Amino acid sequence: MELELRHLRALCTVADAGSIGRAAAELGCSQQAMSTQLRRIELYFGEPLFERNTAGVRPTRYGVEVVARARDVLDRAEAIGRRPAGDAAPRPVLRLAATNSPILSGMVGRVRTELPDLVLTVSSVYESSQIVELLESGGLDAAIGVDYPGLELRHSAAVEHRGIVTEPSFVALPADHRLKHRTEVALADLAEDSWFITPDDGAGWPGVLYAACEAVGFTPAVVHEFLGDQLQLQNMIGEGLGVSLVQATTRPIPGVIVRPLIGTPLWCRYLLAWRKESVAEEVVVTLFGSACASYRDLIARAPHFHAWAARTYRGTLP
């Protein structure tokens, strides 16, 4: 087959939807037709572009690169059909990616308000190591990634990064959990629980979790590897199927409670990384300021975070 723009749109839609069924509904075709088309596209590229799992699909390492370049081609194709007003310069494009981060949505809204002439394209890249590879190869311009204390993000001189916030990791429990009355939970007290653990994020996870568990004398006995949306995760926790570490700003749904861990044994840093030759300094300032403002909004809506901070910092947020 010959690769066409509609094939690139299909790839981007599948990547954004995280599900072949949802992508098919968005494009107005059957799931079977969408699956058949995706197989033909993958045959064209010579290897799988998506990994299938119980939660849906996610791009493979090669798939992330293909989808990023597909978005660029689609943006350029769309620009061909737009007649510029007078001698107006073409609008700059910034390709932004993010790992699993609640910061993203609030950040993007602010950037679009503050830089209305900037065309912002957003994609999901789970592994921070992939983010670095794409920035260094020119497949991305900027991204929100993660790292952990002692395992700081490594990259070449072509890339710069700046920490947005380092936050403690909390634990989500079923509302009827045996430790529900505890203000804070000891990691060791969760030794007998089943765990939902997300896969390797290319930055040190889940190794940092296993190390923390080993330090208090246990290894999680039952592990469910999970990479889906946070609502689906919370629904399973609410059903009593396990516990999970979560971001400190997580807002629990009915049936789920979020608690700090005694001694805060696990921390995660969110950071902004960008390709130096692709992003102007004023754009970096806007991206960083928008990300920080988005995080402040998140903690304002997280009473369990404020309660922890009040105990830990005597009422003053870090």
What does this structure look like?
With 318 residues, this protein is α/β, with parallel strands linked by helices. It has two domains: 1-90, Arc Repressor Mutant, subunit A (Orthogonal Bundle), CATH 1.10.10.10; 93-318, D-Maltodextrin-Binding Protein, domain 2 (3-Layer(aba) Sandwich), CATH 3.40.190.290. It has ten helices and eleven strands. α1 (5-17) crosses α2, α1 packs across α4 (61-80) and α2 crosses α3.
Question: Short summary of the structure?
Answer:
With 318 residues, this protein is an alpha/beta fold. The chain has helices spanning 5-17, 20-27, 31-45, 61-80, 103-114, 128-137, 207-215, 230-238, 281-300, 303-313, and strands spanning 50-53, 56-59, 93-98, 119-124, 142-147, 159-174, 194-197, 222-225, 244-247, 256-259, 267-275.
Task: Considering the chains and any ligands shown, give keywords for the structure.
D-Maltodextrin-Binding Protein, domain 2; 318 residues; alpha/beta; Arc Repressor Mutant, subunit A; 2 domains
CATH class identity of the largest domain: Alpha Beta
Q: What's the number of helices?
A: 10
How large a portion of the residues is in β-strands, by DSSP E? 15-25%
SSE sequence, one letter per element: HHHEEHEHEHEEEHEHEEEHH
Average pLDDT across residues? 89
Largest sheet report: 7 strands, mixed
- What do we call the CATH topology of the largest domain? D-Maltodextrin-Binding Protein, domain 2
Alpha-carbon Rg, integer: 21 Å
C-alpha end-to-end distance: 56 Å
Tell me the total number of β-strands.
Answer: 11
